[in-house]
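Re: [help] complex structure
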Amino acid sequence: MKKFSISSIFAQLLLIVFVFVWIAPTFGLFISSLRDKDVLAISGWWTSFTTTDVNEIYRTKGMEAQIEEDGYFIIKDKVFEEGSGKVISRFGITSKNIDEFMVGEIAVFKDGSEISIDEKGNYFWRSKEKFTKKKGKRIFVSATSPPIFTLDNYKEVLLREGLGQAFINTFAVAIPSTLIPLIICSFFAYSLTWMRFFGRDLLLATVIAALVVPLQMSLIPILSIYNDIGALFGVAAKSFPGIWMAHTGFGLASTTFLLWNFLKSLPNEMMEAARVDGATHYDTFMKIVVPLSIPAFASIFILQFLWVWNDLLVGLVFLDKHPSEIILTAKLKELLGSRGENWEILTTGAFISMSVPLLIFFSLQRYFIRGLVAGSVKG
Amino acid sequence: MADVNLNKIKKSYDKTEVVHGVDLEIKSGEFVVFVGPSGCGKSTLLRMIAGLEEITEGEISIGGEVVNNVISAERGVAMVFQSYALYPHMTVFENMSFALKQAKAPKDEIQQRVTEAAKILQIENLFERLPKQLSGGQRQRVAIGRAIVRDPKVFLFDEPLSNLDAALRIQTRIEIAKLHSQLTATMIYVTHDQVEAMTLADRIVVLNQGIIEQIGTPIELYNSPKNQFVAEFIGSPKMNIIDVKKDTNHNLKIINAPGQTSKIGVRPEHLFITPEGETKIKGNVRHIENLGEHLLCYINIGGENEITAKLDVSSSASLNQDINLGWVSENTHFFNSTGISIS
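Output below.
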């Protein structure tokens, strides 16, 4: 029987609150990025699912559009684009009284010409006199508008604002910056766990000590060393290999520590069995430890990848702002300055940068959960 | 098939010596069981033979060759571990063939040897399974199979039955005994369970605190233990030790003053209820366990001293009643004040 204690109810409520706090802005961002930029500017994303009332002003066509028929001069057109889905309920012909007439009624201008409009926005304007003005008359319509979603923002942001290139750049940074430390650290953690050598404990203590060194402290010294090395070989200090090394270095301690934690939970007797079976340390690592560590690798891959993907500071320090090098977070920051008014660009850009972590998390989450609890239960 | 010689083997961790100079000759094809309480150094000894622990001092030779500096894979030994130590991501076949693959044996030879080993253990139908899909008994068979496949000179068993339930333990014990007669290989087996030791061993090595207390066949250890420790360790329930003193008439008198006195030992199964006149020891029954085939009576003989008697179910022992016990004189074991056997 499941117990419903106060604390479990409280925990459930807290969970719901957290889920809501997390989901609501994400979802809002997603919806906003799909909305028309004009609508986005005037109403919140939560209004986009229902039909909204809009008041619009439309100017009819002028004298060039008139045709003569049965002794009347007629101008016919429609106020909305084809397939807009808007439905007109009322209309007016003066700014003082914009919803004076029902759809289907006939409104009479001061010059005696008559205009009527149907729900779909087709209007019919006739006069006994010939129309002489180039400009048409203003008509005011009150209509209900159905929700509209569009991918235009994505096209705009990815192709014209350069976010597409930044997206690719970020991958170019993140994938090597995740795989390199993972490969190095798995060997390192194995040696720390299962090999006996002089100074092993000291090395482990160093790794743990390195965990507490803040990244900000070492950014500038490392860059200046890069500059010197770059000058020595005549290459730019700021480059992809540079940032790969930087991320590798910064991730080394935590990745090693997590893997060490996992590897030491592997049963000792299994390792010894491999030794008696004639496996060298390398064989043991490749044939036994690696296949058994896949969940741990996956969870560390997620952690490191997300960290690198969301990183701004290291990216700003170790990469130039050329379009060919700039990473997504830096690009977004730049857009925030130059296009801060254009919400459609910012929401879309933000959602693009979120999409990859979300995708990775959801596709690898079963490894993630298994990885975090790995070693706690005897398998 | 090879003999194993241990020559003054010592083992220390940092400065603590845990094995204090063990000398042992194991003949080719012999089944030797190391037995002793936990922490007595029996597993350490086995692991030194396997090459999993360094030897601090002394020499181990297998088949006449000193193996101190030979890696375990090349010592010609195979080990069966307590926790089976199977590779969880490999199928049974892969588990059993791992060592041969490491040795780069040809494929058809691997196939043939694995199949042969599987036939002996009747696990041929499990080849494609993963260890997690096997029961405990099946896992231990695969672990034994993995050892057989390597065709080792010496089999090493490190408490292989501890993780099995009682019924399987007996079954597997019998299978190991059969295996030994089938393979005629040298086997060294570590256990803390003296029943396993008694039933399996050609010779038992009783270890205590890093030294050998006694080496001998099971019957030798049972009938003539060298000291109090062996006497108490071999046999279940353990031997009763009673403090005695010679009185002026050179008759032994039972007293309850441990330490400075001599002791006699009598096994619980050798005790029986006697009429008043022939009584050797008197006591009060404090607890009775009825095991169906016999009764185990825990009897207070004064002070805090308690002895155990294994009595017939039909005997008249009843709870909180005084009881008169006796035994045949040949079944008495004598020990001096330091616990050494005197005959």
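Chain A has 13 helices and nine strands.
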